[in-house]
Amino acid sequence: GGLYHSDRISELLSPFGASTKPGDPLSATPMSRGHSTPPRGHNPPTARVGEIDNDNINPSSAFPGYGYPNPGSESRSGTKGFAFRSADYDIIPSHSTSSNMPMLMLMDNAQSSMIDTLQRQLAEERERGAHRLQTETLMHQLISERNMSSARAAEEQSKWESDVTSLQRDMTSKMEKMREENGFHQRNLIMQKRANVELKKENEELERKLKYTKESTDDLLDKNRQVFEEEKKAFAHRVKTDKGLIENTKKQYEVRMKEKDAQHESLNKMMEDKYKAEAEKTSETFNTLKMEYANRALTFEKEVEKIKDLSEAAKIKSEAGIFKLKVHYEDKLKTLESTARQKGEGYTKMKWCNVMRVNAYQRRIQEMEKKHEEELAAMKRAGELAVSKVQTDIGAAAKEERASHMRAQHDHELQLMQLHKEITTKDQEHARLLDVIRKEHKEELQREIDRIHNQERERDADSINKLAKKQEEKLRRVTEELEAEWKEKLEELQEKSDKAEKHHRGKLKKLQKELEAAMESLRSEEAEGKTRANDFVREIGRLNEQLERNDKHIRSLEEEKREVERKFEHSKRHVLEGQEAKEEKEKVSAELGLHKLEVHSLKEHVEGLKVKIGLLEKEKVEMEGELDEGQEKVNALKAELESEREHNKTKLKELNAKHQSVLSQLANEKVATGKSESDALKALKLNHNKMVAEKDKDISTSQAEVLALKESVGKLRAEKASSKLKSSAQWTKERKKLEDEIEKLTEEQGKLKLQAAKEEMTASENERLQKLLEESSDKISGLATDLGKLEREQQTLESDLRAEKEATSKLAREMKDKLEIIEEKEEEEKRLKKVIAGKTGEIESLQEAKDKVEDELKIKAERVEELGGQLDQQANDIGSAQAIFVGEEKKQAHLLRDLDKAKMRIAELEREVARLKEELKKKERRGSRSGIPPPSTLNKKDIKMIVKYIDRINDDNDGEISIEEFEKAMRLCRRARGCAEEFTRGRMLTVKLEQLCDAHEDLTMNGWFKKAMSDHNAAVIEVKGTGPNGKDEKAIGTMALHEALLNMHKGLGKVGVDVEPFTPEDASNLIRFLDPNLDEHVSVAEFKMALRRAHLPANSLYAEFQCSIVMHKLEDYMQDKHLRIKDVFERMDKDHSGYIDLKEFEKGIKALVGLDRENEDHDLSRAILGRKDELLERFDTIEGEGGEKRDEMRKKFSRLSS
After folding, report:
1. How distant is the alpha carbon of residue 858 from its chain centre?
2. Strand partners, 1037
3. Buried (b) or exposed (e) across 745-759, using 16+ Cβ within 10 A?
4. How many other β-carbons are positioned within 10 Å of the β-carbon of residue 107?
């Protein structure tokens, strides 16, 4: 039914290599196999063309829309698709092993079946041309895929071949290396075997030598025995001769002893005579010394009395100076109290004047309001009169018009009557016209009346609006004037208070200067006293030295006496003279005892003077402590005054805020009420009056509160002053004196009154008594005022002392922080020094080991020389001992190798110590806290990470580094390197702060910072150019932030918070982390930056660490070359584009810093090459196989150098 012929099918299948012979299964078509038409309901196979599968090919997936149904989809005839089955078309694949392409056969079978189905569909649909093109494109695709698969297979095969060749090369290279190593090991084994053979030979030769030495030692022993017997006989002969000589010497000695006894007797006589003369001389010298000591004791007592007088005079002077200072300060206190009282009275007068002015202003306002009301009433009356006049005028005009109209009508009626006959036909028209005219006249009149009414109303409204505006302007002016006056008064009061404060501060400074001058005078007097005491101590020392000299002289005399006593014991003849000498000796000893007692008494007197000097010093210290306490009290009083001033300022601010709120309420009420103008004016007036009354009440209440507060403060101060005065004895004494004077004056006044009552005196006498009474009362009041002045001055001094104490405490905190920083630096330096000490200890231990090895080598060399000498002397048959020397030299070479290793290790340790010392010097020069050692190498990955880190500083991420980013990176890395410990501590404390913020409900970190700034508004300042885009930004002081951190835990109670509160040390550490530039203020940008740095991830921390290492090296390079950051940037920017890319950064670091360091193996190889000539000379000394070893060593050296 219109199918292709088998020749056409063979042409189509020929490109696939399929055979179309009659006997081949592929040549069978559905027609030839007994199928005239395909079975009904069957669809083509479902294999995909794009997958080149062995089972199925589905053209519908490769070419959709061409009439090929998908598997499982319904065709146009309603039949479903089915999977391909070989039984439908009787396709039996070949299973013979001789076939070269079973997979291609399967593919060809599938393709042929698909082609058959295509032909059947083409025959049915009669679209042969289009489907022919489709089959051709499918065929071309299949061919191209087949070619692609073959090309891929060829490529894979070539890859496998290249891998195999590379593996073979690696294997061959490894085998060659293994062969070389095996050869080297074999050579070493051969060398060891040869060395063992030589050692065996040496041992045999040594055994022979030992046998020879034994035989020679036996011969020597026999010879020595014979010599010993001969010497025995000679010794016996010598003993006999020596006995005779000894007897002769005995006799000569006895004769000499007799001669010596005679000489001793003569010498004893001479010594006795000398002793007598010396005893006379010593008695004379003792008498003179006694006189001298007596004179010196008198002078010493006089000097001691002088020193006592001087000390008493100095004490009196100091007491007088202190009393003068006390009187001076009391006078100053009185003056200050009087000035303060006068100023207080002035302030009260000013306040009452202000109150009177306010009342006057209120009266004026009321009068003005009354005037305005009268004017409004008059205006209203005038308006009403004008309206009534207009209404009367309108009525008169209407009446006149009506009268004229009636006249005209009357005339017209007469004319009608006259002309009744002529106008009878037009009467109705005329009447109608009249009606129209009447209506028009009425409308015009009504319009005019309405217009007049409207004009009057508009005039009234305009006048009322103008009046309201005038009232508003007047009210505004009055309020502005009042506000201006209040502001001026407040400014005047503030200026006066500032002037008073400045005046008080100046006075306090003067007082402090006077105190300092007094202290300096006391110190100078104390220094003079100390110098005098030192002079006195020197004189005592001089006297002690003289006493020691006398003691020495006495000891020498006692020694001479002992010698004389010995001589007296030897000589028994002069017993009487010896007794006299003993008596003289006892006298001398008694005199010496008296002299010692005198010296002891002098020493005790000196010690008493020292005790008195110590007491004087203690009194001086106590006086200084009292002065310090007074300064502290003055500081405390200053602080209280400042707190009161701040409280008053806050109250004034609150009053201003209330005033503004009242004004705003008035404006709102005016807008809200939509009544008429007069009602609005009345409401405004009433509100204004109420506001003024409320303001007056507020002012009066605030004044009363201020007065009450001042009274309470005055009471408290008076109580404090009284308690402090009671505590100090000097103030109580003065107060008692004043009270006694008051009592005396009162008694005198009473007496005078009694005298005036008893005796009726004359008028002059009465006047005199009255004057005396007035004077006494004036004196009493003056004394009372003086007491008040003293108390007030003491309060001011105490306030000043408190302020100074706070300043000193602040300075102490700052110094403590600086000391902590210095201690951290010192600890780090100590750690580095310990490391250096450990390294130096290792070097010393290695040097000791080296010295030990050298000593052993020397000992062994000496032993070898001794053995060589013995062998040369004893072994004439052996020849030379070169073999033994060769063995020892091998041992020596082994030891030398050990020595070389030790030297290399020492050199490495010395290099490391030098590097650590250089780091320590750089850190001391730079002031950083923790140095980071440079890395041995930096790879491209690390450099890329550093560039990315620097590029992200300005958030532009353009892959290049600008000069601004480079400068910021230098600053950040310097901070990260110098403050590593602070950074870790700050991160922990920020986490703690976050936990405390989370414990509070609805409180974030930024919210807490804003709350701290609002709570401590006085400590907030504006910093210029620190915000985003160079804008001004607010910053809070570190002291206020410290207080806010300490108060973080308040308000939580027992809610279950596990976080501990901030300690003062934690708060200061966190503030140091938040304030990196140490300007004592933390801005919003600094706070946000600290939060960001506290939450940095590990990758960014590692990048920052690497960047800090590189920037550390660049900083050292800049310091060595005296360069700026800009100069280094220009050197790294090779193309002068203003930006540094990755390649330029890598090349610049390698060129400037040189971070690609060599490893330790290179250093070892350099050390070995440095000793090349020495080692080759060692091998030249060895005979035999030394040449081969020398050649091998030269080859190794050439490898190392390459």
Report:
1. 60
2. 1081
3. beeebeebeeeeeee
4. 21
275: pLDDT strictly greater than 60: yes
- DSSP states of 945-980 as a string? HHHHHHHTTTT---SSB-HHHHHHHHHHHHHHHHTH
Measured on CA atoms in the order 832, 834, 839, 840, is the torsion positive or negative? Answer: positive
Tell me how far the alpha carbon of residue 904 is from its chain's centroid.
Answer: 43
Q: HSE on the CB side for 201, CA within 13 Å?
A: 14
CB 311 within 8 A of CB 765: no
Instruction: Return phi, psi of residue 1037, to 5°.
Output: -70, 150
DSSP H/E element including 1022: strand 1020-1023
pTM of the model: 0.25
Confidence of residue 963 (pLDDT cuts 50, 70, 90): confident
Query: 3-state DSSP call for residue 632?
Result: helix
| Rounded alpha-carbon distances, angstroms, from residue 465 to 84, 152, 300, 472 | 104, 102, 110, 10
Strands 1020-1023 and 1081-1083: unpaired
In the three-class reduction of DSSP (H, G, I as helix; E, B as strand; rest coil), residue 1081 is classed as: strand
Of the pLDDT bands very low, low, confident and very high (cuts 50, 70, 90), residue 578 is low
Task: Provide the CB-side half-sphere exposure for 954 (13 A, CA).
Answer: 16
Cβ partners under 8 Å of residue 296, min gap 6:
543
Indicate if the alpha-carbon torsion angle 615, 617, 621, 626 is positive or negative: positive
Which residues are within 8 A (CB) of 445 and not within 5 positions of it... i.e. 6 or more apart? Answer: 394, 398, 401
How many C-beta neighbours within 10 Å does residue 782 have?
11
Provide long-range contacts, Cβ within 8 A and 24+ apart, for 244-251: none
Cβ pair 475, 688 in contact under 8 A: yes
For residue 627, the model assigns a pLDDT of 61
* 3-class state of residue 918 by DSSP: helix
Mean pLDDT across the stretch 1090-1114?
Answer: 75
Structure tokens at 602: 């002098």
Give the mean pLDDT of 1006-1019. Answer: 84
CA–CA gap between residue 275 and residue 288 (Å, rounded) = 20
State the Cα–Cα distance between residues 13 and 5, nearest whole angstrom: 13
Q: Give per-residue pLDDT as tens, 824-870.
A: 766 766 776 666 666 666 666 666 766 776 676 667 666 656 655 65
Q: What is the mean pLDDT of residues 11-35?
A: 43
Using the CB atoms, write b or e for 1075-1109: b if 16+ within 10 Å.
bbeeeebbbbebbeebbebbeeeeeeeebbebbbb
Position 150 pLDDT exceeds 70: yes
CA–CA dist 1012, 1005 (Å, integer): 11
What is the distance between the alpha carbons of residues 972 and 977, in angstroms, rounded to a whole number?
Answer: 9
CA 234 to chain centre: 99
Domain boundaries, the chain: 6-126, 159-244, 677-822, 928-1157
Q: What's the rounded mean pLDDT across residues 340-362?
A: 71
Q: How far is CA 861 from the centre of its chain?
A: 64
Query: pLDDT tens-digit profile of 607-654?
Result: 666 676 667 666 666 666 666 666 676 667 667 767 766 776 676 677
CB count within 10 Å of CB 593 equals 10
Q: Is the pLDDT of residue 1009 over 70?
A: yes
CA dist., res. 1006 & res. 996, Å (int) = 13
Tokens of 612: 């008195």
Structure tokens at 913: 């110590």
Segment 506-538, tens digit of pLDDT: 776 776 677 677 667 767 766 776 676 677 667
Picking from 874, 797, 422, the residue whose alpha carbon sits closest to that of residue 633 is 797
Q: Give the mean model confidence (pLDDT) for residues 56-65.
A: 42
Q: How far is residue 318's CA from residue 511's CA, in Å, rounded to a whole number?
A: 18
Least confident of 151-160, 557-566, 764-773: 764-773
Q: 1194 pairs with which residues across the strands?
A: none
Confidence of residue 809 (pLDDT cuts 50, 70, 90): low
